[in-house]
Design a protein that fits this description.
This protein is an alpha/beta fold. It has one domain: UDP-N-acetylmuramoyl-L-alanine:D-glutamate ligase (3-Layer(aba) Sandwich). It is 39% helix and 25% strand. The protein is globular, with a radius of gyration of 21 Å.
């Protein structure tokens, strides 16, 4: 007897194959990326004993490393897919800023749009991971240390950054605002950039903090985490996530809201529809970089005129590569993203037999 897939399953398998072909053939189009960059530091060690004076683990350090995070991580993801990110951001003139610049240059990402503020500290996040030696070879996050400037970003620096980013939009296929609320993206700057992107008929992908939703008005797509949507639902007093999503879409004139649920999957909300894409991973290991991966995938797909549903499906595949990776070390590339699409297509076909 011939193996015939359910029509809905076949449609999704066809979508995944179509996306795989798109990823394999992505042209080197320009993506304007404006946002906050962070130097991510990782400390790995053995946590075999407690401190002698307090009930906290004492870490024997065995390895340390650094990577470019936040908007810089988005730039790395875009570049690794073969796209050409124009990164516009701000770093300090300190050692961490130099390290961040060197990391980006090592991956051939242009620093032309990154402004250096001499007397300002670069944002650094240090995560300490520990595991019991010789027992379970799997570490867990024990501590996170955040270092960032205590003063507000000088307005003239942000304004000059916006002007530079505006100039790049004429040759861009998408605009990404990776807003960690650290000063690179301002209210006026976001409004100006989104308006110009809409005028140029290019998609806008926003990854905001909940306190910065006013900087997303008229965006094509906005990224949330599932807990962020739930907090917003409670604040607004709505009965359901769907009602909350549609309220936000109407209020801020978005085309879509993409909600990242980690091991719960991904939701795509539009003004009149809701799609849920379940996670098929047996073991979700970590979530660092989840938003960045989704932003990369949405920008890649929408820059090629993909539908919102196709773009969300690609974002889900990108998120699964992050969920299954080691702590904060995964950057998307064509190989990993294509493999994720292939694996999902295979699982859907097997489960429908």
């Amino acid at each position: 007897m011939a193996w015939v897939l359910d029509e809905m399953v076949q449609a999704e398998v066809d979508r995944l194959k179509r996306l795989r072909a798109m990823v394999d053939g992505l042209p080197s189009t320009n993506i304007t990326l404006v946002g906050d960059v962070i130097l991510d530091r990782y400390v790995h060690g053995w946590a075999n004993r407690l401190n002698a004076t307090a009930p906290v683990p004492a870490i024997k350090v065995i390895a340390t490393d650094e990577s470019a995070g936040a908007a810089a991580h988005v730039a790395r993801g875009l570049s690794s897919l073969g796209l050409n990110p124009f990164l516009f951001s701000i770093i300090g003139g300190d050692e961490a800023g130099r390290s961040l610049a060197n990391l980006l240059q090592d991956e051939n990402i242009s620093m032309d749009g990154v402004r250096v503020v001499a007397n300002r500290d670069t944002i650094v996040k240090t995560r300490v991971y520990g595991a019991r030696e010789s027992l379970i070879d799997r570490s867990q996050l024990l501590l996170q240390i955040d270092e960032e400037p205590q003063s507000e970003m000088p307005l003239d620096v942000s304004q000059r950054l916006t002007i530079s980013a505006l100039e790049s939009l004429s040759g861009a296929s998408a605009l990404v605002l990776s807003d960690y609320n650290k000063g690179a993206v301002t209210d006026e700057g976001a409004a100006t950039l989104i308006a110009q992107a809409k005028k140029n008929k290019i998609p806008v992908i926003c990854d905001p903090k909940l306190t910065g939703l006013n900087r997303t008005k008229d965006a094509t797509c906005v990224l949330f985490e599932v807990r962020g949507l739930e907090l917003t639902r409670r604040r607004l007093g709505h009965e359901s996530s769907t009602e909350t999503a549609q309220h936000l879409i109407s209020t801020y004139s978005w085309d879509a809201l993409v909600v990242l649920g980690g091991s719960q999957g991904l939701w795509l909300y539009t003004a009149d529809a809701e799609h849920h894409i379940p996670c098929m991973l047996d073991d979700a290991r970590q979530m660092i970089g989840l938003h960045d991966a989704a932003a990369v995938a949405m920008a890649a797909a929408l820059s090629q005129s993909a539908t919102l549903h196709d773009a969300a499906t690609l974002a889900h595949a990108a998120c699964e590569t992050i969920l299954s990776a080691e702590e904060g070390r995964e950057v998307l590339d064509r190989r990993t993203l294509s493999a994720s699409l292939d694996e999902r297509a295979w699982q859907m076909q097997v489960s429908d037999r």
